[in-house]
Amino acid sequence: PLEMSSKKPVPFLRQVISVPKKVHRDPRFDDLSGEYKPEIFMKTYSFLDSIKKQEKEMVQKQLKKCRNAEQKEKLQQLLNRMTQQEQAQKKQQKLRERELSLKRQQRELAKQGKKPFFLKKSEKRKLELAEKYAELKRSGKLERFLSKKRKRNAIKDKRHLPSQKNL
């Protein structure tokens, strides 16, 4: 800012030097960066999967060699986080593939001259649950999953019942 004397009255129409304002761009929300398409993104950055795999193997080797308990705990947490991220990515990929297959089916029906039918969220959830049960049955883990679910529900029901003290 220009330094002015406080003795003189400020002129009504004073000259102000304009400074060009910096415009900050966030590529996530800017149209100039293009549209986000997960398929293209996955193809472009598929090389990262192999790098992540190598890093995971390296962490596993370090974990086997490590003697320090504190260091071992940190490495175990890192390994757990890596596996969880991997599982989440696979789950998301499955979901995307399922949605694409549904879209393909709708296109085929539209080509045949039939009216397209779109599933509601609840129906999609039911299909997903049925698929999960089928997967658990295949792997032989269905009974254990159902027993855990029953226990959880029993605990929830117990919470809503009046306690023995009040009777």
Report on the architecture of this protein.
With 167 residues, this protein is mainly alpha-helical. The protein has a domain at 38-129. It is built from five helices and no strands. The relative contact order is 0.03. It is found in: Nucleus, Nucleolus. Residues 82-101, 144-167 are annotated as: Disordered. Residues 147-167 have a biased composition (Basic residues). Its main location: nucleus.
User: What gyration radius follows from the Cα positions, in whole Å?
Assistant: 30 Å
Instruction: Tell me the structural class.
Output: mainly alpha
- β-sheet strand percentage: under 5%
Please report the distance between the alpha carbons of the first and last residues. 78 Å
List how many beta strands DSSP finds: 0
Low-pLDDT runs of 5+ residues are: none
Q: Provide mean pLDDT, rounded.
A: 89
Question: Main attributes?
Answer:
167 residues, 5 helices, RRP36, mainly alpha, rRNA processing, ribosome biogenesis, 0% strand
Q: How do the helices and strands line up, and which of them pair or pack?
A:
Layout: H1 38-44, H2 47-65, H3 69-111, H4 121-139, H5 142-160
Function: Component of the 90S pre-ribosome involved in the maturation of rRNAs. Required for early cleavages of the pre-RNAs in the 40S ribosomal subunit maturation pathway.
Subunit structure: Associates with 90S and pre-40S pre-ribosomal particles.
Pfam families: RRP36
Summarize the structure.
The chain is 64% helix and 0% strand. It is built from 5 helices and no strands.
